[in-house]
Amino acid sequence: MCSSPLWRQLKHNSLTGTLPTELGELTLMNEISVSENTELCGEVPADVVVSSTAGTALGESCTTDGPAQGPTTTTSGFAARGRSLLGDDGSGRFGSQQVISTLANGAEGVYATDLDGDGDMDVLSASNFDDKIAWYANDGSGGFGSQLVITTLAKYARSVYAADVDGDGDMDVLSASFEDDKLVISTVANNPLSVFVADVDGDGDMDLLSASFVDDKIAWYANDGSGGFGSQQLVISTLADNARSVYAADMDGDGDMDVLSASAWDDKIAWYANDGSGGFGDQQVISTSADHPRRVYAADVDGDGAMDVLSTSDWDDKIGWYRNTRTAAPTTGSPTGSPTTTSGFSVRFISTLADAAWSVHAADVDGDGDMDVLSASRDDDKIAWYANDGSGGFGSQQVISTLADGARSVHAADMDGDGDMDVLSASMDDAKIACQLARNVSVLLRRAPCIAVCR
């Protein structure tokens, strides 16, 4: 039995050339990459104790206001390792930073998925100074093993993502990098910075999307159903000046996956309507109010059933959201008056306190059923979140950590299997992949003097 997934490197083609970049003339091999998980294997260590009803945890005392009475109740809250907690209000308070690794030199991207098929969420990282795509096995309770390298040939790796690309039931890994000579899907995306996966053409398999900044290109690559992509790049647009980020969601409610982009030099957040088979309409600009946008993301922020848009922009420190005002109207000339949808957007900003805002993510952080927003900002080393009131109104910035030196990426997933959303970060200047665990703590008011989280 092997101890970790095996990765088969898929090479399709390669192309060298001299290209203008932000750093000057560079000889590059610019690629979108995929590593196929060829075998599910590995054993999960035995579970560790993560909670106790004892009154002491790692030397810290816990007291109550008096004898507990009444029925058993449950409350949600957050606690760091080694801290006891009683009756936390569930408002999204996080504990101290748990470092997963400091071996991701120039950490740029972080993502969570179950790579080894054991039912918990493992962590992926992309780091550009060491050209590395790596993963870290979760022990099931939010503890992580050492760094397991998938490849060191992702030259200047910038983005990592996972999906079942070849339809065999396990999670494969994709990356975007400036230059590479293996795992190649395409070499015609000049300096790709972002990769995303979605069923673009509606054929049931996962296609790839890329954003590349030298050629201002948003493009996609058709999957043949077995993880083969060939060399054909299908260009959606070349009007995303210095394209930085790509995302896919059904923006117009017609059942197919539309595409979103963020581009830095023209300050554009834009979307492209899919005709259902992978044909795309013209670029539709959502906003040019975000100065030098870095990321774009989609989620139903206000709970109206339409996908809204989130962005970060590092020159104005903004976390932006754009409310989708999609409406239905009769089709012109339709004898049946069948509805057609149009999507418009109203521009709002959640915060301007994320210094050099870099990454944005949405998740239900406080467990109240709506989508809260998370950010990573480079110049203040900050991972933060913003509570949603359920209708897209956001509270003030709540800082989770300022220990992510040069924060580049934020992601949320249930890392310890307790039903709440924990937070992952990647920070470039300290080569760090980190996790901050949240806890749903059951407070047994009838019997337990307190609840202590023990490790």
From TrEMBL:
Keyword check for rRNA-binding, yes or no: no
**Which ranges are annotated Polar residues under compositional bias?**
60-77
Q: Which SUPFAM superfamilies match?
A: Integrin alpha N-terminal domain (SSF69318)
- Superkingdom classification of source: Eukaryota
Check the record and name the Gene3D superfamilies matching this protein: Integrin alpha, N-terminal
Keyword terms of this UniProt record: Signal
Q: What is this protein called?
A: VCBS repeat-containing protein
- Is GTP-binding one of the keywords? no
